[in-house]
Design brief:
Number of helices: 10
Oligomer: single chain
CATH topology of the largest domain: Rossmann fold
CATH architecture of the largest domain: 3-Layer(aba) Sandwich
Length: about 280
């Protein structure tokens, strides 16, 4: 379908399980409106066993691109004909571009996370702790180690299976995989990031370690990010804020990964006023 101005209407979307909570449709609709584009963006509930069908169906239907959320970011790697450097390095995909019949996988989560954290403070991170081991956690760890970490800084990557994470990490590097039983040890944390599904709708309500232990390990003035949104009442951010930390929910990361994803789809950067429209739609 084309508009009176000749612009071809394209469909975009996000695939997830669950996905009803997603604010991506409102955010991208605001961007398309600000750009004067007729495109549409929809959320699609796709079970893990139907992911390949959904992605190939979207390609066959002429979609402009897709986003992927829990639990599809790592599984989608096998569906891509080519990978961008960040997706290849991280081992997870959150943005698909359909071009020339090929599926090109990208990861904008890491860049989005780094941009969001810099809005809190531009200072380097010295001691970070990342909770969770999924696709989003991989992107966050990559961004901290590659963009945010100061000289001599370290990242403790917390997982139920730290041995599996450690197998993919370079020996002697700044990232160390640890179990949940190591929450209370080590240097004070100046950046804590929750990348688990704790607090998500229909997700778990408790961490494998007490939230009080997480907050107790924070350095004065620490930054705490929970990529879950909307912010769960009484959750990690409320506890951290009460302890004096600067906090941020997942909407800022969602915003910036969306900005970078849309730039890939459209082949151009987004102007500040478009980013402002996307932020207003999220909030």
């Amino acid at each position: 379908m084309t508009t009176d101005g000749g612009e071809l209407t394209k469909c975009f979307g996000v695939l997830g399980d669950p996905v009803a909570h997603s604010r991506s449709p409102a955010m991208h609709a605001a961007a398309f409106a600000a750009l004067g584009l007729p495109h549409r963006y929809l959320a699609f509930h796709v079970a893990p066993e139907r992911l390949a069908e959904a992605v190939n169906g979207a390609r066959a239907l002429g979609f402009g691109g897709l986003n992927l959320t829990v639990p599809h970011k790592q599984a989608a790697l096998a569906l891509c004909d080519r990978l961008g450097p960040e997706a290849r390095r991280i081992g997870a995909v959150n943005t698909l571009v359909f071009t020339g019949g090929a599926i090109v996988g990208h990861n904008t989560d890491g860049r989005g996370f780094a941009a969001a954290v810099r809005e809190m403070s531009s200072g380097h991170v010295q001691q970070a702790m990342v909770l969770g081991s999924g696709g989003a956690a991989r992107a966050v760890v990559d961004a901290i180690a590659g963009e945010l970490l100061g000289p001599g800084g370290h990242v403790r990557w917390v997982s139920r299976d730290p041995a599996a994470l450690a197998a993919g990490l370079p020996a002697g590097g700044p990232v160390v995989a640890v179990g949940w039983d190591a929450i209370g040890g080590g240097a004070a944390v100046d950046l804590l990031v929750n990348c688990t599904t704790v607090g998500m709708a229909h997700g778990p309500t408790d961490y494998p370690a007490p939230a009080t232990a997480l907050v107790a390990g924070l350095a004065p003035g620490a930054r705490v990010v929970d990529i879950v949104y909307p912010r769960p009442a009484g959750g990690l951010l409320d506890r951290a804020e009460a302890a004096g930390a600067r906090v941020q929910d997942g909407l800022e990361m969602l915003l910036w990964q969306g900005v970078f994803a849309e730039a890939l789809w459209l082949g151009r950067s987004l102007a500040p006023e478009v980013v402002a429209a996307m932020r207003a739609a999220l909030r």
